Amino acid sequence: MNYKNISIYFFSFYFLFMYSMINFFLMIYFIMNDLIYFFEWEIITLNSVSLVMSILLDWMSLLFMMFVCLISSMVIYYSKSYMQSELNLDRFVILVLLFVFSMILLIISPNMISILLGWDGLGLISYCLVIYYQNLKSYNSGMLTALTNRIGDVFILMVISWMLNYGSWNYIFYLDYMMNDMIMQIVGIMIILAAMTKSAQIPFSSWLPAAMAAPTPVSALVHSSTLVTAGVYLLIRFNILLMNMFFVKILLLLSVLTMFMAGISANYEFDLKKIIALSTLSQLGLMMSILSMGLPDLAFFHLLTHAMFKALLFMCAGVIIHMMNDKQDIRWMGGITLYIPMTSLCLNISNLALCGIPFLAGFYSKDLILEMISMNNMNLLMFFLYYISTGLTMFYSIRLVFYIMIMDFNLITIYNLYDEDFIMLKSMLALLFMSVVSGSFLSWMIFSYPYMIYLPFNMKMMVIYVIVMGGILGFMISNMNISSINKHLMMYKMSSFLCLMWFMPNLSTYGVIYYFLNLGQKLMKNIDFGWSEIYSGQGIVNIFKNYSIFYNVFQMNNMKIYLFSFVLWIFMMLMILLSI
Fold first, then answer.
1. Nearest Cα to 171, choosing from 30, 292, 64, 38?
2. The pTM of the whole model exceeds 0.90
3. Which of 415, 430, 477, 495 shows the greatest Cβ crowding within 10 Å of its Cβ?
4. Run of H or E including 263
5. 569: exposed, middle or buried (Cβ count in 10 Å: 0-12, 13-18, 19+)
């Protein structure tokens, strides 16, 4: 690694880390004094037209920026070791910095135009990062990611055009008193659809596991605090508008189904990164569903706690993949605690935080969300789906731990495991600390009053019951021989349906493009290589070739036949002239 790359890494790391610390102290000051700052920077004025950049700083945007910059700094520091064998490292760091900048622009924007810049920047740079390894699978995944996110971009553009009716794109000025207006209802529906594409809710879920083609540090950044959380953050900002809409009830149903579908699919998956990606999809469904029930503070709380342990989980997965000669199949792993104990410790704690084990980061947000649902006047289907999905989280986490740590070592006999990469370890240990303490300190800071939720003892302990039940079932199923179950045809079909995310990737990729590709192949065969060839280039070439062969026979034969044909030709010309 040359000195230029090292300087880019360290500059990026220190800049982002210091910026996150500044945001942290500013956020505490803003919360204590209940401040909101709105800046308008007039870039250019021409006659009566002024181009203005507006920035909104409140405790929410500062806190989210602090988390984004902290995770980004750790990811860049981690990449220094993870990506050291790559060429063009400076390009990778610049792409990550642009990605973070796009997210920051989205966070601080009270204006639809600057939101579009950040939103579109995230989509474009995520495409560049997904195709970073430049192979066929990466290109396919990149196109699926970019085109799905493009749907959301179109909805944001339509929102911008609809908002021309109000004379300003600064939506925060008139959300509260225009929310019953018909145009604002249409704007709200488009915002929800845009957020669903970015945060991968059903039916736009298939791009999220496909985006795992990106390098692991990028996955840690994308799936924790940047790309997938952009839709949730946008809905938190537009929450006042959404509360009186019927479409929010549809969003609630779709997001709970997303959470359930991702939890089941993760139990059938064997790719380490895809299991964690489906786990992210499940948590995004949880955030969107609690948001659509009218609790934006809780959704934001879970978004922040989830960001820490999910980034750590991906970093641990990156170390394990690195050590396993780039194998990602968990069936090849096993018994790694003996060889990489520090990484195993980080993986276990982040997994437990994800499951909602008491007093880790995930517990504070998850427990509060499930208790609020128990208090809420919801139907039984939603109630059961919430608790089953929580149990499934424990289910696939225990299964993951079983395959990676408890089973015997299954890889090749070459001893390749070592736990001495201190650059990776330092960045992981920083996030480990945050994964343990962030839940408690955020609950003290965000909520100015304590939530006192009175429930019967069994309802209060329901989260613990579900976690324990999911853990036991996960351990039991991991011990069973799944192949013997799948020999039964019906069970095999059912497991295929559940494994393939309810056939969503097939519907959104092959299902959409198969008939167009088939039609294109037939058109190419019959028109491009068929009739158009006969009546254009190839046909003319064949005619000229046949004529030349015909005349060649005459020219290569003896002179008598040639002269005779010449005389005959003159005789015919004379006959024609005489007849005229």
1. 38
2. no
3. 430
4. helix 247-268
5. exposed
Enter the tokens of residue 408: 């015997």
DSSP string, 223-244: TTTSTTHHHHHHHHHTHHHHTT
484 and 565 belong to one structural domain = no
Residues linked to residue 170 through DSSP beta bridges, in sequence order: 111
Place of tokens 């045809």: 489
Q: How far apart are CA 572 and CA 580, in angstroms?
A: 13
Note whether 455 and 380 are within 8 A (CB): no
Query: Using one digit for the tens of pLDDT, what is the confidence trace for 30-82?
Result: 888 888 898 888 888 888 777 888 888 988 899 999 999 999 999 888 888 88
Nearest residue to 101 via CA among 118, 124, 123 = 118
Pick the closest to residue 71 from 305, 344, 236 (CA basis). 305
515 and 395 both lie in a single domain: no
CA dihedral 175, 179, 185, 189 (to 10 degrees): 50
Count of other CB atoms within 10 angstroms of residue 59: 20
Structure tokens at 251: 């969003």
* Judgement on whether residues 538 and 551 belong to the same structural domain of the protein: yes
Cα–Cα distance for residue pair 327/414, rounded to 1 Å: 14
468 plus 481 within the same structural domain? yes
Closest residue by Cα to residue 304 from 445, 123, 120: 445
- Is the C-alpha dihedral spanning 517, 522, 525, 526 positive or negative? negative
- Taking CA atoms, 115 is separated from 58, 152, 195, 237, 312, in Å, by 16, 12, 12, 11, 28
Residue 487 inside a domain? The answer is yes
For residue 363, give every residue at least 6 positions away whose Cβ sits within 8 Å of its Cβ, in sequence order, or none.
353, 356, 357, 439
**Nearest CA-CA partner of 393 in 456, 326, 309:** 309
The CA radius of gyration of the chain, in Å to the nearest whole number, is 31
Return d(Cα 231, Cα 235) in angstroms, integer. Answer: 6
DSSP string, 502-548: GGHHIIIIIHHHHHHHHHHHHHIIIIIIIIHHHHSHHHHHHHHHHHH
- In which residue ranges of the chain is pLDDT below 70? 1-6, 411-420, 478-499, 501-503, 505-513, 553-560, 562
**Amino acid found at 146:** A
Number of folded domains that form the chain: 2
Containing H/E element for 57?
strand 49-57
Average pLDDT, the chain: 82
**Maximum separation of any 2 CA atoms in the chain, in Å:** 121
| Cα gap 557→292, rounded to integer Å | 91
Give per-residue pLDDT as tens, 308-328: 989 999 999 888 888 887 788
d(CA 17, CA 30): 20
Is cis: bond before 217, omega within 30 of 0?
no
Domain that holds residue 480: 133-503
